[in-house]
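Entry:
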Amino acid sequence: MKLHQLTLYEAHERLKKKDISSLELTEAVLDRIDALDGEIGAFITVDRASALAAARAADDRIASGSPAMAGLTGIPIAVKDLICTKGVRTTCASKILENFVPPYDAAVIEKMKAQDAVIVGKTNMDEFAMGSSTEYSAFKPVRNPWDLSRIPGGSSGGSAAAVAADMCIAALGSDTGGSIRQPASHCGVVGLKPTYGRVSRYGLVAFASSLDQIGPIAKDVRDCALLMNAIAGHDPRDSTSAPRETPDYTAALKDDLSGLRVGIPREYTEQEGLHSDVSKAVAAAVATIEALGAEAVTVSLPHTRYVVAAYYVIAPSEASSNLARYDGVRYGFRNASGTDLLAMYRNTRSEGFGPEVQRRIIIGAYCLSAGYYEAYYGKASQVRTRIREDFETALEACDVILSPVAPTPAFPIGEKVDDPLTMYLSDIFTLSANLAGIPGMSVPCGFSQEGLPIGLQIMGRHFDEKTLLRVAYGFQNATDFHTSKPKR
């Protein structure tokens, strides 16, 4: 096995035994990026010099033996380009932040650096995380390593593609409506959206503040648990960070699923537009999980029909507020051609934001405007409460809920980019977890007839990521979908 193909756990064990060095591992990953990223487009910034310096420092730490080697020491990791990295530009894949260099690290970056992780670069994404295909990047689209004519999913498409193509050992993404789980599904890797508040959002550039959450994208479930151990925990700098004890997520990794009840939402199995290959793969996955000792029960999520509408009021409303700070005055891109302040604002934002971001800002501003707030944002917030109650009721009857991640396998680049409504419906199965604030993850569960990966979504109770990981690990060990790799 080549070094860039190692999982996080395998790399950790070989580093600990001094079979390999972090410098060798990092160079192998950087060489892989050089060889493949020209056609995939997963990275916006590759920080070769800093990565090699961090790898040498990690090797020194390992050689000294003090303190004890942490789980991420010497491991090359990629980071979605809306997570602030001190001294390394953070663009959000937007022209308006094309040259922005943060003066501080996000909380998750601090945690990874404290473990001597090696950050190899910043991954491409839909602009300000607004998209489901990573076609809305201001710089270049990301292509799916399994089929370069297909989208990788979004908005964390760069992170998922980088992991799938072995251009990093693992990666961080963010999930506001499925942006970790959906690209993980399309790229055949594992992705976890933690409970809202489980991972600090300090240093995460905001899209929709009540929905955003940082999480891991990895080659397998064990790696996902190891990354969660590194990044989870309370942070007083984030007012939404939950002051709860963080468990050892690797302790949940058990093959036996006896005694667990898995819920199958009837509304999801009846969903219009569900591709037959996805339906068959998910049904087979449920059967495998039952064979491992779990009991499948039918549950209901009656407000599913309102999920897309509620989300596309709440998220754009919060985005229009959060993105108001990009006005060309304090930092970021400025178009100074206007004759007055208002013209400068208008020209800066019209040129600096792409069409999808502008679309969502306009929707959000309308929903929050005088006379419409209660009819739109207020009503959507009430629907959100009903959706959360649906999950609370369903999860009284089961331990986790199983569903597809996306209604179809990865679709061709350009197929939906000019049809926003059809693109929005790509997130029908993932939006609910964000609205309800519960954890959700994607684990590879099959392939389409065209050889494209399909993911199984596992959702659970607030702060019960351990049960999701237990189910995913049991399923992974009974199958070999996660071991398949794109041929490049």
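Residues 305-381 form one domain.
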